[in-house]
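Run log, item B.
One chain of 231 residues. Sequence copied directly from the ordering sheet:
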Amino acid sequence: MKRFEQTLERIDRMLAHMTNRVDLIRSLYENGSMEPCYVQTLRLEENAERLTLQARSLPVYTGSRSAPDDVEQTIHDVIPVEMGFTEEGWFCLRIPMLLPKKESGSVNWLRGFLLPALSKFFNGKEPVLYTTCVIIFRHVYARDYPERRWRDHDNIETKLVTDAVALYVMPDDGPKYCCHYACSDSGSSERTEVYVLPREDFPQWLAQQKSIPEGGVLLHENRPISPKKDM
């Protein structure tokens, strides 16, 4: 149980540190010091992600055999990733959050919920492979979010998502097989949409993107049978 005790002590220290940081953020905000306040909020967010990773390991260290499955189910309940196939036969993944801009640092928090969700969805399904394709990242911002604060499209999170998706529906994410496209839009709530589709279908997706429903396009569990296959 040594690892359990060590992790619990680590969590306790992290919580105390985060409490102090929250007090600092509140003080900066009340004094109108928004730039340093912003820096501290980013550090708080990083601390929270590190804390989450520690908290996920704690149930496993109790020795319970069901801990890995229970933790995975909890992650699924808290971060309900949606995925499936559109009417056109395109693969679509919806993450209920924006991918934060990070030029460095750990992305284990993202890997922790995305890879299990993909594995669960594709378990027992016939393989799907888009041999020459476009992977699209559509970043949807809540309408009350100021447009001047929209983020650049390039971050290490999109690279991780691309690598994860490529494991299941692409032979490779290199330029020989895959083109990349990113765009931003506004909607009722924040989310990140990822599409993988044959390269020749990209003009069709581009024409349809402005008519994507608020909650996202209808997704099917299996790829619809279509005369146009990129298999």
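Observations after the first pass:
- DSSP finds six helices and five strands in the chain.
- The first strand starts at residue 82 and ends at 85.
Flagged for discussion on Thursday.
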